[in-house]
Amino acid sequence: MSGIAIRRNHEVSNEPQQPHRDLRYVTPFDVDRSLACTRIPDKIQGMTTRKLALVQVDVFTDRALTGNALAVVPDGRGLTTEQMQALARETNLSETTFILPEDPAAEKTRGVRVRIFNVQEEMPFAGHPTLGTAFVLRGQSGAEEVKLELNVGTVPVRFTQKGSSALAFGEMTQKDPEFGAIHDAQAIAALTNLSASDFDPCAPIQTVSTGIPFTIAPVRSLRTLQGLRLDVPRALEYLSRSGGRFLYFVCPETVNANARLHARMIFYNGDDPATGSAAGCCAAWMVAHGVAASDEQVMIEQGLEVHRPSSIFVRATRQNNSPDNQVVNVRVGGNCVEVLRGEITLTN
To answer: pTM of the entire structure?
Structure first.
């Protein structure tokens, strides 16, 4: 690939969406045809040009220019893995997703095939790309559910729209959690500018996975969490030995009085504005350790340190009749706002 160009038609808008027919399911073929891939094999001085549609949305927010931005390519068929990775670096967002339309009948069973890339690698699962891509696929169809076939398997996203609200609320169901190692506060403190006493002893530092393993680290105070610095290379090395992938720091003191936890996820691409996959792990951790009740929906605030406030709504179920009080049915939800549409031009 010798050239990539992106033309963006800015559309920051809070206009209400018009209701359409009530559907149970939507496929890429139901999406507005203006989003479709345009393949134009024009010969320009010996080069082949291909054009792709691009949609950018802000996820886990009801206001444009907040939340976590996501780029979605509505039809990525024909792109190589290397091209997808290069496009993810080009958008330079937390993640970029590529929808790969297949037979609609098969999609109704296993979901629409979607691949997720951040600036460094392909991800088997990620929360805000799942929710944002489902919103793009749903469009204005009014579909109650969109299923995505990700590398971790099928993830359903269900939608509700209350009263006169212009925005739908989407909620994904993540894989049942796997609880991993419990970590020593001193070991985690050594990766940061914090001391062991800065961590909250009321709940353990523990690795949990609902698709990607996050190590949930509770901190005592909001001020401490706001001043957190993380040695990312050392953290990645430590986590590789202990079964984790990333750290998710949380504390019970919040900026928004409606939030249950304030959260930060710092990784190789900076301070993530919203981390839906980590929030799912955190939901399971909260229910397991009494921070939230079974099936209680609570809000996690994130992204304030990077001026991208996000609201992530989570809940999970404790099976009290099971031998180990197993936590299941992890759900993560929020709103999504379309910000712009554009066109990618590839030449080779």
So the answer is: 0.88
